[in-house]
Write a structure and sequence with these properties.
There is one protein chain. The chain is α/β, with parallel strands linked by helices and 401 residues long. The chain has helices at residues 3-21, 37-53, 55-58, 76-87, 100-113, 141-154, 169-184, 205-213, 226-238, 257-263, 283-296, 304-322, 329-336, 388-391; strands spanning 23-30, 62-69, 93-96, 116-119, 134-136, 160-165, 188-194, 218-222, 247-251, 271-274, 340-343, 346-350, 357-368, 374-385. It is globular. The N and C termini lie far apart (61 Å). Bound molecules: P-hydroxybenzoic acid. P-hydroxybenzoic acid binds at residues 99-100, 121-124, 170, 224-225, 253.
Length: 401
């Protein structure tokens, strides 16, 4: 065999070997410790479960997750770990962001690194405008808030509302979204009450007492799920607000599936709007629930955060295949424009204009089932809901010129 032939064979072997051994590194940024630790567990499990169930789809590549803790929900640590992941670990993509401040603070670093960054929770609408490398598979506060504003006026026939919200970007977004839709449909928001921050669960009593004294038809509350949500429902019950004729409504964050059973009967009758509840009855969700329980225990349940991450990993796997494992940032983002997926929440799409998710929204009521457990009963479904803040180009949601 000639030297030239040997060299050609070696080159072929290296390139083939390279392709089959191509490892794609995904940096995962989640609040593994602190107030958001349960969120991180949900999202971590969602990412891992997708990979486990779809190992064949990843071939001939391998995906390695490099996990970093974003700690407190203020963006400071997230920004540092994003930089480390991009520069030291040389990751090919980033996934995660439990809290909006984490994604907001990291945006300039993400842009400089030019790698796909898939947002699996953080819900402030304008975040995707902060970097061309962001793609969001979770939700925006406008998806649920706007749809709930319409439903409060048209379905619940509410005329007046008080809004209480955790005082940071997604809380303000949820307020704006609800108010925009509720008032366009004949309602009036008579007060908007900032109710503490995301870092610690406040005593909601003074905020809700103020709302009770104002006698609205509905109290619309946004809190970042978790223990905040449990405290909201307990305070609503303790103040006797239902008996006073005030309906508690909100985005589904206030009845997060992993917290629902712990809320007890106080939660029965709560009406919320969200793109995912574990009780959704569709074949993809049945398969997802069965796989989740097999993997994480019969008593465990996924929630909307788990699904945002599961769908996020599906998006990353799509990008890996579409770029033949190179994960060039521009190409990876481009491959996801218009991408569709049959998610446990129903069909989803990445809007090619905004890089944000388009999905169904479900109006749902908490009921007590024959099994003695609390369940979400879907009252109605709206298909293909887009982020209305960007559709209306409101403030920082307007496209960057
Ligand atoms: C956010 O910080 O964007 C966030 C956190 C928890 C939620 C919703 C939004 O339930």
């Amino acid at each position: 065999m000639s030297q030239r032939m040997i060299a050609a064979i070696v080159a072929l072997a290296v390139s083939a070997g390279g392709a089959s051994a191509r490892e794609v590194k995904v940096g995962v940024v989640l609040p593994y410790t602190g107030v958001g630790a349960e969120f991180a567990q949900q999202m971590d499990r969602g990412l891992e479960l997708y990979l486990k169930l779809n190992a064949d789809q990843v071939k001939p590549y391998t995906i390695t997750l490099i996990k970093r803790d974003s700690k407190a929900p203020n963006g400071a640590e997230a920004k540092v770990v994003v930089q480390e992941l991009l520069i030291q670990d040389k990751v090919d993509a980033i996934a995660g962001f439990g809290y909006s401040p984490d994604a907001i603070a990291s945006a300039p670093t993400i842009s400089a690194g030019k790698k796909l960054a898939v947002i699996t929770n953080a819900g402030t609408s304008f975040i995707t405008n902060l970097s061309p490398d962001f793609v969001r598979t979770s939700f925006t506060m406008w998806h649920s808030g706007y749809a709930m504003g319409v439903a409060a006026a048209k379905t619940l026939h509410a005329k007046t509302a008080v809004v209480a919200y955790t005082d940071y970007p997604p809380g303000k977004d949820s307020l704006d979204a609800f108010k925009n839709a509720f008032e366009a449909n004949g309602g009036k928001v008579i007060d908007a009450i900032p109710a503490g921050g995301p870092g610690a669960v406040p005593d909601f009593t003074p905020f809700f007492q103020r709302a009770k004294d104002e006698k609205p038809d509905v109290l619309y509350v946004f809190v970042p799920a978790g223990d905040h949500a449990v405290a909201v429902v307990k305070t609503y019950a303790a103040l006797g607000m239902r008996a006073a004729g005030i309906k508690l409504i909100g985005p589904g964050d206030i009845v997060q599936d992993i917290k629902l059973q712990g809320m007890g009967d106080a939660a029965v009758g709560l009406v919320t709007m969200l793109h995912y509840y574990a009780d959704l009855d569709n074949p993809q969700n049945q398969r997802f629930l069965a796989a989740w329980k097999k993997e994480y225990g019969a008593d465990s349940t996924p929630d909307f955060m788990a699904v945002g991450a599961y769908d996020g990993m599906a998006a990353i796997v799509h990008a890996v295949q579409a770029t033949k494992g190179t994960m060039d940032g521009d190409d990876a983002v481009k491959s996801l424009l218009g991408w569709t997926f049959d998610s446990p929440q129903g069909p989803i799409m990445i809007d090619p204009e905004t890089r944000d998710i388009v999905m169904n929204e479900y109006l749902s009521e908490v009921v007590k089932g024959p099994d003695g457990k609390l369940h979400e009963k879907v009252l109605s479904k709206t298909d293909h809901v887009k982020d209305e803040c960007k559709a209306q180009a409101i403030g920082p949601c307007a496209p960057k010129k």
